[in-house]
Structure formats: structure tokens, C-alpha cells
Design a protein that fits this description.
This protein is α+β, with helices and mostly antiparallel strands. It has one domain: Beta Barrel (Cyclophilin), CATH 2.40.100.10. An eight-stranded antiparallel barrel has the order 1-2-7-5-6-4-3-8. A hairpin with a 7-residue loop joins strand 3 and strand 4. The termini are far apart.
């Protein structure tokens, strides 16, 4: 048998070994979920974003973070659940002077599967599709903020897009602060932090 035929058989053998490798060996590692550290004057909150489930909302949030538009902003609202200690959410955003990007499409919890549980971060909005940069973090489960198809009125809920992995105690600490500041709307009376909690900076962790 000549050397050329031996060489061809050797190559075929190597190819067979490559084909026979376990499927898992060729699988790429899943991409890490982005994390953002929110530095406040009451402590640090780290959130992990579900960019695979809510890509539009996560990309928008990171766009503001990377542009440093949240720096110098604040948590200005503490919406407390009446009669339940430690339950509710805190809302924050960039300084008023910051120019907002265009509103984004609404990613419903019905589509993403991300529910409003303790630690969930979600976008504030008026009508669906009006969200820009203000966000809130749940200190407790708040299922009424999820989409409820078939319910009366605006039943699309809010666009949840991640959750707290460090600093839920900071969220609860902020929620417990005095909230008797002037309210821009009657429905927000008793919810405006006084003074607001400063967002010193936000960056990818």
C-alpha cells in the first residue's frame, strides 16, 4: 500500500474522530447576562439584565448607562403597599436636564416571561410604547404590574427586564425613607422621597 493511500486513510480517521465528538464539546458557552451597578448615596444596587428575553428594553437601558445619562440622577419615588411593611417599589431616573432618547416598543411580561417579583427591575411608562429611561425596582412581589390579557383598560403591564443580584437591602432601605415631598400628580401623594436619593453613577459591573 503506498504512502498516499495511507495518508488519505489517516485523514479520514481524524475526520471520523471529529464527527464522533460529543455534541456538548462543540457548543459555545452561553453569553453572560449584562450587569449594572447603581451607586447611590445609600449603597450599591447591582442588577442583572435579561437581555435574551427582553432585548429591546435591555439595550435601551444600557444605552443610557453607557452614555452616563443616569449619573447625577435620583430615586425620587417610593410607592409603598398600604398595610404591608417593606412592600412596594422605588422609582428612579436621570437628571431632568438630560436629553432622552426616543421611546421604545413595549415588551410585555406575557412575551418575556419576566414577572414582577422581589428585586425585579422594570420600565416606568404612561401608554404602552412610551417608556424612555425612568425605571423602578420592586422591593416585594407585585403581580398586578404584570400583563393581564382580557382585563379591563390598559392590561399590558410594565416591561420587566432583569433583577437585583446584590443590594436588595438598599432597595428596601430607600423604600422606607420619608416620602412627603410635593407630588406632581394627586395619585403620587405620599410617594415622593424627601429628599430624593442621589444616583451617584451607573456603570456596567
Amino acid at each position: 500500500m503506498n504512502d498516499a493511500r495511507i495518508g488519505r486513510r489517516s485523514l479520514l480517521g481524524v475526520a471520523g474522530l471529529l464527527i464522533a465528538r460529543p455534541a456538548w464539546a462543540a457548543q459555545p458557552k452561553p453569553l453572560a447576562k449584562p450587569r449594572v451597578a447603581i451607586q447611590t448615596d445609600h449603597g450599591v444596587i447591582v442588577v442583572e439584565l435579561e437581555s435574551g428575553k427582553a432585548p429591546v428594553t435591555c439595550a435601551n437601558f444600557l444605552r443610557y448607562v453607557d452614555a452616563r445619562k443616569y449619573d447625577g440622577g435620583s430615586f425620587y419615588r417610593a410607592s409603598k403597599t398600604k398595610g404591608v411593611k417593606g412592600a412596594g417599589s422605588i422609582q428612579g431616573g436621570p437628571p431632568d436636564r438630560v436629553r432622552r432618547f426616543a421611546p421604545i416598543a413595549h415588551e410585555s411580561t406575557r412575551l418575556t416571561g419576566i414577572k414582577h417579583r422581589a428585586g425585579t427591575i422594570s420600565m416606568a411608562r404612561n401608554a404602552p410604547g412610551s417608556a424612555t429611561c425612568d425605571f423602578f425596582i420592586c422591593a416585594s412581589p407585585q403581580p398586578y404590574l404584570d400583563a393581564h390579557p382580557g382585563a379591563a383598560g390598559d392590561n399590558q403591564g410594565f416591561a420587566a427586564f432583569g433583577g437585583v443580584v446584590q443590594g436588595l437591602d438598599v432597595v428596601k432601605k430607600i423604600l422606607a425613607l420619608k416620602a412627603d415631598g410635593p407630588a406632581p400628580y394627586p395619585a403620587m401623594k405620599g410617594q415622593m422621597l424627601n429628599p430624593p436619593v442621589k444616583i451617584i453613577g451607573m456603570k456596567r459591573a
